[in-house]
Amino acid sequence: MLWIKAFHIIFVVTWFAGLFYLPRFFVYHSMTDDERLHRQFRVMERKLLGITHIGGALALLFGLWLLFAMSRGNPSYWSQGWLHAKLALASLLLFYHIWCARLVGQFAIGANRHSHTWYRWFNELPAVVLVLVVILVVVRPF
Ligand code: HEM
Q1: What is the pLDDT of residue 35?
Q2: Beta strands, E only, the chain
């Protein structure tokens, strides 16, 4: 079980590396009119999105594996408040990931519609989710 949890946390960190830095690329990408820089950002965004997909998929895989392993023979496991809140925040992170993938697609066809200020605020969400989820899984306040 601890090996599964260790790999879950390793891939959560990988996932966050992408979710933290992709929107940062969007901030700088939205500020440039230089075609050579546009091409450079498109390559970096596409490659980082690939790493983010791998981290997210494996964090989810090991997380679900933990969920069913921890709850097997223990149905009350599902009624823990901290776990509900955590899974809700993790779902929000999955939507944020999909949104980032759509934004990479929009930048790739030169169809970005947001300003660098908008992306600076957009970039804050993963940090808020990280703080809340780690407090929930370690402190288990409810
Ligand atoms: C993507 C969906 C996710 C699922 C299904 C999931 C599921 C789980 C489960 C079932 C556990 C075991 C909890 C226990 O010991 O009873 C766990 C542990 C953990 N998860 Fe997740 N998780 C997910 C996402 C995340 C995210 C986004 C983070 C970080 C922000 C995270 C951080 C952790 C940590 C740090 C632990 C170890 C807690 C401890 O043993 O003290 N997980 N996860």
Answers
A1: 94
A2: none
For residue 115 the two structure tokens come to 């300003």
Number of compact structural domains in the chain: 1
Residues 6 or more apart whose CB falls under 8 angstroms from that of 102 comprise none
Looking from the CA of residue 59, the nearest atom of ligand 1 is 1
Average pLDDT per run of 10 along the chain, which is 142 residues long?
97 98 98 95 98 98 96 93 98 98 97 97 98 98 96
CA-proximal residue: ligand 1, atom 12 (nearest): 66
pTM across the whole model: 0.93
Q: Is 73 left (phi over 0), alpha (psi -120 to 50) or beta?
A: left
Name the token pair of 85. Answer: 């809140």
Residue 115's domain comprises 2-139
**Rounded distance, CA 96 to CA 20, Å?**
11
Identify which of 82, 137, 140 to mutate to test ligand 1's pocket (most ligand atoms within 8 A of the CB). Answer: 137
